[in-house]
Design goal:
Layout (H helix, E strand, L loop, with lengths): L1 H5 L36 E5 L5 H6 L16 H10 L2 H12 L9 H34 L2 E5 L5 E5 L8 E5 L7 E7 L5 E5 L1 H4 L4 E5 L2 H4 L13 E5 L11 E5 L2 E5 L4 E2 L4 E3 L3 E8 L5 H5 L9 H39 L22 H15 L8 H17 L14 E2 L11 E6 L6 E12 L2 E3 L5 H10 L41 H13 L4 E4 L6 E4 L3 H12 L3 E5 L3 E7 L6 E12 L7 E7 L5 E7 L1 H4 L11 H13 L2 E11 L1 H15 L6 H12 L4 E12 L3 H10 L3 E5 L4 H10 L8 E5 L4 H9 L2 H25 L7 E5 L1 H7 L5 H9 L3 E4 L4 H15 L2 E6 L5 H6 L2 E5 L6 H4 L3 E3 L4 H41 L10 H11 L1 H10 L5 H6 L5 H4 L6 H27 L12 H23 L5 H23 L2 H4 L5 H6 L3 H28 L3 H11 L5 H8 L10 H12 L1 H12 L1
Parallel strand pairs: 15-27, 15-31, 27-30, 28-29, 29-30, 31-32, 32-33
Antiparallel strand pairs: 1-8, 2-3, 2-4, 4-13, 5-11, 5-13, 6-7, 6-12, 8-9, 9-10, 14-33, 16-17, 16-26, 18-19, 20-21, 21-22, 22-23, 23-24, 24-25, 25-26
Helix pairs in contact: 3-5, 4-5, 5-29, 9-10, 9-28, 11-28, 11-30, 12-20, 13-14, 17-18, 19-28, 21-22, 22-23, 22-24, 28-30, 28-33, 28-34, 30-35, 33-34, 33-38, 34-35, 34-38, 40-42
InterPro entries: ATPase_P-typ_cyto_dom_N, ATPase_P-typ_P_site, ATPase_P-typ_TM_dom_sf, ATPase_P-typ_transduc_dom_A_sf, HAD-like_sf, HAD_sf, P-type_ATPase_IV, P-type_ATPase_N
Pfam families: Cation_ATPase, PhoLip_ATPase_C, PhoLip_ATPase_N
Cofactor: Mg(2+)
């Protein structure tokens, strides 16, 4: 077996846990351990005995994971419940049940069959979507892992077969199949490296360590044969960062913490293998406990559509109520007017129990109300919801398969994870974007450094290029322009440094060569990276905890200081010896690693060099490191500060590098205190360690600074420029410091030189003095007052410039944002922000990102889109109307929480301006047309019933009524929703202001909706009265018969089928062969159906029996009436559209006119229309060019001249 073959593999002798200060520490019994066995801490795991009677009595959940919405047993009832939650479907269910009674004006089959068809289609769609989730579940549950079979052997088993208590062996780069208790690893001290990208989006590796009691005894597969242990721990919960338990092994209790827990879906890295005991399985695992359903999001159009449906219900009930009153009066007075004989004798009131009995007119009116509610149900489009769902799914297919949004480098296409929000993509008013990994690549490159007060590095950053464009010259690259830059050789990941003064060993010629040597040594030694050497090529690669750290180690290697080996207490690297000029191997003994964390903002190592000197090597943020320098260590401080500021201006991330020699006695004292603090079981252990390390990391000697670039993604400036031209506001929410964020803003065209910057921060002398004094309440009060004052000043500045072309940018830091988001001031902050062209929030926490998004969404009432790539963006994505996840390098957490996933920020341009506009335009037109055709059909039913004194007589045959929405008018409207293009993709890019039609909701405004409804009423009146008057007093055929209900109904129905489909022809902007087939096919289908249905027996076809072949088709008046109705019914719409197109065109109609007139290649004409999209407050390089034109005074003159000509 595989397990047996590997059972004798030697363990790695490294004991890396000894060198970590914070990550690896002994677990101790805490207060929470006393709760074990009580409520919330009742779980008992029998390790290596998953099938024992005691374990089986616990009946814990299996490891099978289900993410599907339905099961085979629940699909039908649950899906039916979902369908009938929709008020329209429930209404048709009620009318369908009523159709089983004698009150029904039509047969029950004709009422229930279309409803069943619509519900069935919706359920099939739900089933297909759920089957996709089922396939993902099958893939995950069928993954394999090695499981102990009880005899010291490990065999492959599927994840779903795992049980609580199983012992598993996980290999390098495999995912953990459940929550495991780490027992031992390939390292002697049982540490392992874990990547939690799927859990929290972080790419840096986490260090875990098993208990010494298990790691010392469990070395290889055969050691598990006799293992018997019991774990008592907390019950399943969603907390990813805590775990409380005890391990009972050989009659001893050992405390367990999160340090020993390996979470499902995290990955084993830099470690050959680990052994673990299964503690939580399936839906009990912490990652599944955290997987909450995303918030339910519905588009604004869908919510508005519900209001229209409710309005139609009101109209139906109102019409039924009025008709019932008139019917009751007519029924009561029927006998009186006829003088003993009813005037409506053809209704046979003498045979009626109630309905037409003049003696029971009030009851007849009440019963008529229910009949009328059923009869007028055709005002409500039964197939509306299912048609929209089909259209949205097909629209999502087009988005997913758009080759122009496919990123070949990572093989990632766009992915619409939900189809509910397609049209919302065309209505976005504000974009809230993360910076790192979203606007930038999150791929760090070492590009510059400052050593001994001298700046090195000739690379030009994107920000520097932008700065050069702003200044009208070339980017600054330093004074020594005569230095040759060698750009030969392949591109090295993480390294974009060019400077011959230090490359290829030339650093030895520099004046401060000794300082450069210490600097590069520090890069090669001060880290936690693990080297991997390719046996075939000898090339060394690195596994690092963060992209920054990987860039530093690669930079050291490329500059001649190659780190190639790590042992338990040593780091080996090769360097150029200053004395001999030869490459030599050096080994530094590694004594301690004081790791980086967000509170410390620095990392240090304590090493002993080959000469026996003790050295502390440190790197960290400038605001932390400069204050730790010794008086004699500040020789290069002034120049280094200048360079750091320049690097920040260039959008680079900087770290300060420093060192000091440590006295032997000092280190002995430190080591003693440090070990005591590390092994302490007191509650303040962390603070003790911090205090001791803080004392050691002082009196440092400055070496220099590093600068790494997080490059802008390709196409970001162009994308932002185009979105800004479309009138979309763009906010950036970032954790970076203000200087970096501002310069990234310039690089990506969010900011421009003409903009006035309103900067809100708390860097005032008064607040700094209070911070030094430490008066917390006074600091808070002063900060709040300062933020409010700055917001008022900013607002006054904008108000004072009203009427001018000045644009403003608001830049606010995280501290200030805390107060600006308070309930008393958030409206004031929002008012200020919305009046600015750009908004940048710096040093923002994930919670602040979500709060800002919520404020913009609720405060403006407009559609918001959030875009991000990391776990820290999840709150923002879920809070926004639309969440777009970037499938980048920060894991899949953002993508899994998003509504739509794309691979690059630049694809947002096509997603919004093209797909968004098309989806919005299509859905809007589709819904308006749906209500038009149903009102046309419903009003003819109402008019006929009114014509027959509200006697509840339908104008059409039962099946004519039922199949109108399902067969004769539904396919063309679906084709409209999928294929129509009011403007081509090329013109969407050329005229980005077109996007504002969606932002302002012009195509689905109440004005347009009511207009289409009014068009339906006009069409219905035309059809009914022309058909009625044409046949009322004339003989219909040579036999002298007049037209009856079946002939009038058949003629009106034919006219409706023709008119509503021809109306579609007039409404469509872009014809495809599909539209031709469904439009003319729907009309042909009506005639085919009429002949087939009419050929059936009269018991089934009733009054439609051979009505077409024997009555309608032979009569010339039928064809003439149809022709005249088509002409007169469509003339009002045609005239209206002609006048609108000529005198009051919408923006898309102007573009259509340009294309139609052949002006699309006329630069002057096109520029005139395009200029309407450029406003003084937009951003981007186009706005920058427009601002210069406006300043010259030519802009308005040229615009007016061209517009008059247009």
């Amino acid at each position: 077996m595989a397990g047996g073959r590997q059972g004798g593999r030697r363990r790695n002798r490294l004991r890396l846990s000894n060198i970590y200060a914070f990550k690896c520490r002994k677990s101790s019994f805490q207060e929470d351990h006393s709760q074990i066995g009580g409520p919330g801490f009742s779980r008992v795991v029998y390790c290596n005995e998953p099938n024992s009677p005691a374990a089986e009595r616990r009946n814990y959940a299996g490891n099978y994971v289900r993410s599907t919405k339905y099961t085979p047993a629940s699909f039908i009832p649950k899906s039916l419940f979902e369908q009938f939650r929709r008020v329209a479907n429930f209404y048709f269910l009620v009318t369908g049940i009523l159709s089983l009674t004698q009150l029904s004006p039509y047969s029950s089959v004709s009422a229930l069959l279309p409803l069943a068809f619509v519900i069935l289609v919706s359920m099939v769609k739900e089933g297909i979507e759920d089957w996709g989730r089922k396939r993902q579940d099958i893939e995950v549950n069928n993954r394999k892992v090695k499981v102990h079979d009880g005899d010291g052997m490990f065999r492959q088993e599927e994840w779903r077969e795992l049980k609580v208590g199983d012992i598993v062996r996980v290999e390098k780069d495999e995912f953990f199949p459940a929550d495991l208790l780490l027992l031992s690893s390939s390292y002697e001290d049982s540490i392992c490296y874990v990547e939690t990208m799927n859990l929290d989006g972080e790419t840096n590796l986490k260090v875990k360590q098993g208990l010494e009691a298990t790691s010392s005894a469990l070395h290889e597969d055969s050691d598990f044969k006799e293992l018997k242990a019991v774990v008592r721990c907390e019950d399943p919960n969603a907390d990813l960062y805590t775990f409380v338990g005890t391990l009972h092994l050989e009659e001893q209790r050992h405390p367990l913490s999160i340090q020993q827990l390996l979470l499902r879906d995290s990955k084993l890295r830099n470690t050959e293998y680990v052994y673990g005991a299964v503690v939580f399985t399936g839906h009990d695992t912490k990652v599944i406990q955290n997987s909450t359903d995303p918030p339910s999001k519905r588009s604004r159009i869908e919510r508005k559509m519900d209001k229209i449906i409710y309005m139609m219900f009101f109209i139906v009930f109102l019409m039924s109520f009025i008709g019932s009153i008139i019917f009751g009066i007519e029924t009561r007075e029927d006998r009186v007017r006829a003088g003993g004989r009813t005037e409506r004798w053809y209704l046979k009131p003498d045979d009626a129990d109630i309905f037409f009995d003049p003696e029971k007119a009030p009851i007849a009116a009440i019963l008529h109300f229910f009949t009328a509610v059923m009869l007028y149900s055709y005002f409500i489009p039964i197939s509306l919801y299912v048609s929209i769902e089909i259209v949205k799914v097909l629209q999502s297919v087009f988005i997913n398969n758009d080759i122009l949004m496919y990123y070949e480098e990572t093989d990632k296409p766009a992915h619409a994870r939900t189809s509910n929000l397609n049209e919302e993509l065309g209505m976005v008013d504000t974009i809230l974007s993360d910076k790192t990994g979203t606007l930038t690549c999150n791929s760090m490159e070492f590009i510059k450094c400052s050593i001994a007060g001298t700046a090195y590095g000739r690379g030009i950053t994107e920000v520097e290029r932008s700065m050069a464009m702003r200044s009208g010259g070339t980017a600054l690259v330093g004074d020594d322009l005569d230095v040759v830059v060698d750009r030969s050789g392949p591109k090295i990941k993480g390294f974009n440094f060019q400077d011959e003064r230090v490359m290829k060993g030339n650093w030895v010629k520099e004046r401060e060569a000794a300082v450069l040597q210490k600097f590069f040594r520090l890069l090669a030694v001060c880290h936690t990276a693990i080297p991997e050497t390719d046996e075939a090529t000898g090339a060394v690669s690195y596994e690092a905890e963060s992209p920054d750290e990987a860039a530093f180690v690669v930079a050291a290697r490329e500059l001649g200081f190659e780190f190639f080996s790590r042992t338990q207490n040593g780091i080996s690297f090769r360097e150029l010896d200053l004395a001999t000029g030869e490459r030599v191997d050096r080994v530094y003994r590694l004594l301690n690693v004081l790791e980086f964390n967000s509170a410390r903002k620095r990392m240090s190592v304590i090493v002993r060099d080959e000469d026996g000197k003790l050295l502390l090597l440190s790197k960290g943020a400038d605001n932390v490191m400069f204050e730790r320098l010794a008086k004699n260590g500040r020789k290069f401080e002034e120049k280094t500060r200048e360079h750091v500021n320049e690097y920040a201006d260039a959008g680079l991330r900087t770290l300060i590098l420093a060192y000091r020699e440590v006295d032997e006695n000092e280190y002995i004292e430190f080591s003693k205190n440090f070990n005591e603090a590390k092994n302490s079981v007191s509650a303040d252990r962390e603070s003790l360690i911090d205090e001791i390390t803080d004392q050691m990391e002082r009196d440092l000697i400055l070496l220099g600074a590093t600068a790494v670039e997080d490059k802008l993604q390709n196409g970001v400036p162009d994308c932002i420029d185009k979105l800004a031209q479309a009138g979309i506001k763009i906010w950036v929410l970032t954790g970076d410091k203000m200087e970096t964020a501002i310069n990234i803003g310039f690089a990506c065209s969010l900011l421009r030189q003409e903009m006035k910057q309103i900067i809100i921060n708390l860097e005032t002398p008064h607040i700094k003095a209070l911070e030094k004094a430490g008066e917390k309440d006074a600091i808070e009060q002063a900060s709040r007052e300062s933020v409010v004052k700055q917001m008022e000043e900013g607002k006054a500045l904008i108000t004072g410039s009203s009427g001018s072309d000045e644009a403003f940018a608001l830049i606010i830091d995280g501290k200030s944002l805390t107060y600006a988001l308070e309930d008393d001031f958030k409206k004031q902050f929002l008012d200020l922000a919305t009046r600015c062209a750009s908004v940048i929030c710096c040093r923002s926490s994930p919670k602040q990102k979500a709060l800002v998004t919520r404020l913009v969404k609720s405060g403006t009432g407009k559609t918001t889109l959030a875009i991000g790539d990391g776990a820290n963006d999840v709150g923002m994505l879920q809070e926004a109307d639309i969440g777009v996840g970037i499938s980048g390098v920060e894991g899949m957490q953002a993508v899994m929480s998003s509504d739509i996933a794309i691979a690059q920020f630049r694809y947002l341009e096509r997603l919004l301006l093209v797909h968004g506009h098309w989806c919005y335009s299509r859905i809007s037109s589709m819904i308006c047309y749906f209500f038009y055709k149903n009102i046309t059909f419903g009003v003819t039913v109402f008019l006929y019933e009114a014509y027959t004194s509200f006697s509840a007589q339908p104008a059409y045959n039962d099946w004519f009524l039922s199949l109108f929405n399902v067969f004769f008018s539904s396919l063309p409207v679906i084709a409209l929703g999928v294929f129509d293009q009011d403007v081509s993709a090329r013109f969407c890019y050329k005229f980005p202001l077109l996007y504002q039609e969606g932002v302002q909701n012009l195509l689905f405004s109440w004005k347009r909706i009511i207009g289409w409804m009014f068009n339906g009423v006009i069409t219905a009146l035309t059809i009914f009265f022309i058909c009625k008057e044409a046949q009322e007093h004339q003989l219909y055929n040579p036999n002298g018969k007049t037209a009856g209900r079946e002939i009038l109904g058949g003629t009106m129905y034919t006219c409706i089928v023709w008119v509503v489909n021809l109306q579609m022809v007039l409404a469509i902007s872009y014809f495809t062969w599909v539209q031709h087939i469904v439009i003319w096919g729907s009309i042909a289908l009506w005639y085919i159906f009429l002949m087939i249905y009419g050929a059936m027996g009269p018991s089934f076809s009733t009054d439609a029996y051979k009505v077409f072949l024997e009555a309608l088709a032979p009569a010339p008046s039928y064809w003439l009436t149809t022709l005249f109705v088509m002409i007169f019914a469509l003339i009002p719409y045609f005239v209206f559209k002609s006048i609108q197109m000529r005198f009051f065109p919408g923006y898309h109609q102007m573009i259509q006119w340009i294309r139609y007139e052949g002006h699309s290649n006329d630069p002057e004409f096109v520029e005139m229309v395009r200029q309407r999209s450029i406003r003084p407050t937009t951003v981007g390089f186009t706005a920058r060019r427009a601002a210069s034109v406006r300043r010259s005074g030519r802009f308005h003159d040229q615009l007016n001249k061209n517009f008059i000509a247009f």
